[in-house]
Amino acid sequence: MLTAHEVEQHFERISGDHTSGVEPAGIKAGSPITVRISDVQREEVRWLWNKRIPRGKLTLIEGDPGVGKSQLTLAISAPITKGLPIFGDDGEREPENILIMTAEDGLGDTVRPRLESMEADLSRVVALTAMIGEDLKERAVTLSDLATIETAIIEHKPGLVIVDPIVAFTGQADTYRSNEVRGLLAPLAALAARHGCAVVAVRHLTKATGGKTIYRGQGSIDFFAAVRSCLLVGKSPDNPKEKIIVHQKSNLGPETPSLKFSIEEGRFEWIGETTITADQVLNTPTDSDERSEIDEAVEFLRDTLKDGAVSSKDVFRQAKAAGVSERTLWRAKKRLGVKAVKSGFDGSWKWSLAAEVCQDPPKTATSLCIENAADFDEVGRLRQTEAAEWTEIKTS
């Protein structure tokens, strides 16, 4: 068995004679290459954006169309081009170049105006728009064209490479097949590691509602699995004019606090930290009519429960009379943080506002206190505890 160092020494000795067809002693096709961990030099994680975007690794930014993902990548890029800290970081840095691969935004009417409004150094932003094919004609670049991408990286030495959106650069690969996705992302990750640049890929979520975010992205879950950091972008459940960034995966450090930003008349502005979670972002209606319905249901619940716990049967009966649908009521229940308690004395379910229950729940074997009871699971069914409650409501 050969170590990686021994293999490297062999090929150094025969450099310039790789095509001779003669294999050096001890090396043959199928020989395993091993590395003794004691020979591996320890390295600390280097960050492009502290604890959010690591250098030499893949990062995913995902969210529904129209929530500002592309503008976010430029808001991250702009200070890098001028040697300034990204929002939340401290201290100046050396100015670095940015390499952009974009399939959706025009360079002249979208990318440049956005970067100008962010006061980026435009001379440090390079767009990889196409390549010369084997027929010597211009053609689109895909992630399979790794040599072309690497040549651009060697020439421009970017600190950040943006692929937006990544599905547009997968070529003929089936993005729902694990082996094909891994076949594209593993070489890209190795490329990032070789040159120490951060690679940020943008991915759209599907139109499905509810469920875990990791299953909502376009294509295989292997996109999510292959990256070392993933940031979810969505609308704020509190203010439709604000957007939220939630750090939903971090393999190399702690997950960072969620951040707010806004885009007003095309201008990007950071707001600050927030406690909003990925679940809250995902459950924020994207349609204004649905938002209005849930807002009304929240107000109905707040008014109904303001004087204390109410039987869930009565809540649903009053909701029906008020024109609030059952599904909307469940969603409003989660939004408001309503607690559901099953009493050990009469066996009935009661709903109450968060501060009013679970302080001293009934101490009986049959009592059940549920905090922040959710509405529907990832496939649209009521979760087990809510289903049990719902069965009692419907059959009584």
Description:
This protein has 396 residues and is an alpha/beta fold. It has helices at residues 4-13, 69-81, 107-117, 146-156, 178-195, 222-226, 278-282, 288-304, 312-321, 326-336, 384-395; strands at residues 2-3, 33-34, 47-49, 53-54, 58-63, 97-102, 125-127, 131-132, 138-139, 158-164, 198-204, 229-235, 242-250, 258-264, 267-274, 310-311, 339-342, 349-352, 368-370. A 9-stranded mixed sheet has the order 7-6-10-11-5-12-13-14-15, sandwiched between helices. Helix 4 (146-156) packs parallel to helix 5 (178-195) and helix 8 crosses helix 10. The chain is elongated and about 80 Å long. It starts with a strand and ends with a helix.
Which helices and strands, and how do they pair?
Blueprint: E1 2-3, H1 4-13, E2 33-34, E3 47-49, E4 53-54, E5 58-63, H2 69-81, E6 97-102, H3 107-117, E7 125-127, E8 131-132, E9 138-139, H4 146-156, E10 158-164, H5 178-195, E11 198-204, H6 222-226, E12 229-235, E13 242-250, E14 258-264, E15 267-274, H7 278-282, H8 288-304, E16 310-311, H9 312-321, H10 326-336, E17 339-342, E18 349-352, E19 368-370, H11 384-395
Parallel strand pairs: 1-2, 5-11, 5-12, 6-7, 6-10, 10-11
Antiparallel strand pairs: 3-4, 8-9, 12-13, 13-14, 14-15, 16-18, 17-18, 17-19
Helix pairs in contact: 4-5, 8-10
